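Quick one: co-fold with zinc ion.
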Amino acid sequence: MTPVTTDLDQFLTAYDERIRGELFDFLRIPSVSARSEHDADTSRAAEWTADALRAAGLDASVHSTAGHPVVLGEWRGAPGKPTVLIYGHYDVQPAEPLDLWTSPPFEPTIRDGRIYARGSVDDKGQLFLHVKALEAHLAVRGVLPINVIVLAEGEEEVGSEHLESFIEANAERLACDAVVISDSAMFAPGLPSILSSLRGMAYFQIDVQGPAQDLHSGSYGGAVVNPAMALARILATLHDTEGRITIKGFYDTVEEWPSAVREQMGGLPFDEEHFRAEVGAPALGGEKGHTVLERLWTRPTCEVNGLLSGYTGEGAKTVLPAKAMAKVSCRLVPNQEPVEIERLMKAHVESVAPKGVNVTVTHLHGGRPWRAELNGPLFDAARRALASAFGREPVITGEGGSIPVVGDFARILGAPVLLVGFGLPGENAHAPDEWMSVENFTKGMRAIAMLWDELGA
Ligand code: BES
Ligand code: ZN
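Sure, here it is.
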């Protein structure tokens, strides 16, 4: 199978350099949603996105929320044709630790066919390739084959807290026949992929307070409960020795995966040793009785994301810390509900909290898991468009990560959601040296441009 060339390709090829330059401008804006010192940058990225949509030929508007703004782009010039909502996010993860970047995170640089920058793949590069696919249609043909709504948010990396209410309040304006999202990765280089599932999320902070202030560990140690040890005990109760989560009721609503999907998963070209070597861990671990892909895509988790207590500087300091804190998040699978997991987690921690310390559990954010209906005209169109652009039939994959709003789209707008991403394994999303492949950016743009032709036909 060889990739297909169209009039849209010719446009995208002719303007390749300009498009790259614009993407680099977008990547230079440090729109780190988690950090208030970057609020002005995050707003600037919203305005930049709106301007890019206008330049492509859409009407664009920026809507303030209680958090970061939502950007809408609209083109409704194809009466009688389907309306597609394209979703992406213009916010990025913090870039720290900065000293581990080969080139600075907000100075995009190409090396070995990769665009290195924070947000290159997650998700500015993937959002921007959608904008350019729309521009190609409007510039070459003056019209789009479908009606389009672009919704770009600035809070995805911090849990999309204000997006659900925005969608609810604007449900009529956002009404659509399909939602299309590029914020994920292909299974392997050259292998286009359609996602069949995402895990959900319930994120917690556990605070343990002991004595009123730090104490001399000789004068007081042994007679006062140590909050760091108390926290370690609590965390150690979260799993059994076979990797199962021991929170009572945690698995009650977990659904069996359809056997067809499991079979498909088993047929993917996946090598556990290669995966182990890629992550650089001495050995892999996880829940007994499941393959690595099953653990990643079909099973819930409970992970410590961060720990803080006592003295961690150079050398030794004999101190009994006053407090300890852990960030703990659970990835959820259908049909686990974040609010129910919150209730179960709080009850569990309360039941195991040692005496002599005060323990509080705060729920920071949550999102529902999601599983696709993998049939219908939307998926057939996506298969054809991906095959044309990449010269290869796409595979169906799962995903262990989360995009909190996906469940809300399906629920509030009642439209099927298509997830086609153009990242790659090892892309370093959320880590130093994040990159997006130039080839995937280029082919992704073409695949999406063709998808609109397929859907309009
Ligand atoms: N692009 C990711 C989602 C994703 C992760 C897709 C891994 C494919 C592979 C998204 O930007 C993300 O990181 N989401 C967060 C959501 C969380 C803050 C609720 C995540 O999964 O940690
Ligand atoms: Zn992300």
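If it helps, The longest strand covers residues 200-209.
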